[in-house]
Amino acid sequence: MGATAGLLLLGCRGEPVDLRAQAAIAAGGSRGYAGPAVELAFWTGFTGGDRPPMERLIARFNREHANITVRMSVTRWGDFYQKIPAAVDSGHGPDVAVMHADQLATAAVRRTILPLDEVTEALGLGAGDFSETLWSAGVFRGRRYGVPLDVHPLGLYVNRAVLAGAGLDDAALPRSRRDYLAALDHLKRRGIQGSWVSPVLFTGGLMFQSLLWQAGGQLFSEDGARAMFHAEAGVEALSFMVELIRRGYSPRDVGQDADSIAFINDRNAFLWNGVWMINTFKAVPGLRWGVLPVPVIGAQRAVWGNAHHLVLPRQPGAGAGHRRLQAAVVFLAWLSEHSLDWAAAGMVPARREARESAAFRRMTEQAIFAEQLPAVRFPPAIAGADAVRASTLDLAVNDAVLLRATPREALSRAAREADALLAGNLKKFGRAL
């Protein structure tokens, strides 16, 4: 498919829609918006503790912009990604939306969102405003589709009460594989299972991905044609998790969120979980906790991360919504500039100036998560890869952690199934590169 044809399609009434033309119109919003009053639909999946901070930001934006009113619609993320393609195709999609970095490729090949190269150029945004890692995560097949709002990696939460009760102080906080195992062995001798291993994606699957990258592995080949998670690096990563269970450092059959509940109840010392747990733990009376970068278990520093990106969904018709497109860019740019305020949701702001500010450094826990940014690895920009991972790799991690199969057996079986699904994706979406 040629470059021009790849960005042309029919709108909900059959008119041709040129995504690049819409993006060029939107770029005009870099100069502000002085037209008649418009109302923008803003869709997100911020259903939890991240919702109030975003609502406060929107209220502030609305106060500061007399001719633009933003209304946020909130849907659970799983439903959000089901809903938005159909809504855009029917001409009833939002003007601005938030998507995770690992969803941009799929949304791009479905023509759900606009390419933003002209928009970011007009706004004067580049890697220097964020970081190379964050900035490049918004690119698919050489075009930009998202502007990063935040980054949310895993970290290692530590229960200080559990450690103190076992006679461990800050000198025992683990930074390496040896430190980690030594602390867990010490805890075990005092009857404490100190690192509960979850069999589900949140958080066992994310722990596995971190360990996979630490061991030098990858999830899929760069072109999206083959699974790679079953190679020796993957076996090594999953074997480490299983060994924590077999050594008695973790209970068997840990249920969904049971690792976090045990942490809150002073029964679990170390928890691999995301930055989104900061506000949850702060709200627990009497909980004594802290956070560290995840320990380096493998040969190199690496940690799973994802990022919320601001996107502009395709609008219906060739000439429809010009004013809203420009107003949408005003809102997008304003939110990006205020990413420090968004850090109140427990996120690491994407903008470099926000991360380097004194105000952010006073956000102790978020600042520790931010230290990991050079080591953050995002899921690959491969259309449909998220669904492939969920139906193959996540099940393999589950089987191995529940001791139903060896790591090698579980990963090999999942890789065969993933390869078949990836072959179907190649026919539907084309290669990632």
Keyword list:
single chain, 433 residues, alpha+beta, D-Maltodextrin-Binding Protein, domain 2, 2 domains, six-stranded mixed β-sheet, five-stranded mixed β-sheet, 43% helix, disordered N terminus
Helix-strand blueprint:
Layout: E1 8-10, E2 16-18, H1 19-27, E3 38-44, H2 51-64, E4 68-74, H3 77-89, E5 96-100, H4 104-109, H5 117-123, H6 132-136, E6 139-140, E7 143-144, E8 147-148, E9 150-159, H7 160-165, H8 177-189, H9 201-214, H10 232-246, H11 258-264, E10 270-274, H12 278-282, E11 289-292, E12 303-306, E13 308-311, H13 322-337, H14 339-342, E14 348-349, H15 352-355, H16 358-361, H17 364-370, E15 376-377, H18 385-391, H19 393-401, H20 407-429
Parallel strand pairs: 3-4, 3-5, 12-15
Antiparallel strand pairs: 1-2, 5-13, 6-7, 8-13, 9-10, 9-11, 9-12, 9-14
Helix pairs in contact: 1-5, 1-13, 9-10, 9-19, 18-20, 19-20
- Report the CATH topology name of the largest domain: D-Maltodextrin-Binding Protein, domain 2
The radius of gyration is 22 Å
Low-pLDDT runs of 5+ residues are 1-8, 10-16
Per CATH, which architecture of the largest domain?
A: 3-Layer(aba) Sandwich
Strand residues, percent: 5-15%
CATH superfamily of the largest domain: Periplasmic binding protein-like II
Head-to-tail CA distance between termini: 14 Å
What is the structural class?
A: alpha+beta
Tell me how many strands there are: 15
Average pLDDT works out at: 94
Largest sheet: 6 strands, mixed
Helix content class: 40-55%
Tell me the domain tally: 2
Shape: globular
Name of the level-1 CATH class of the largest domain = Alpha Beta
Question: What is the count of DSSP helices, taking H or I runs of 4+ residues?
Answer: 20
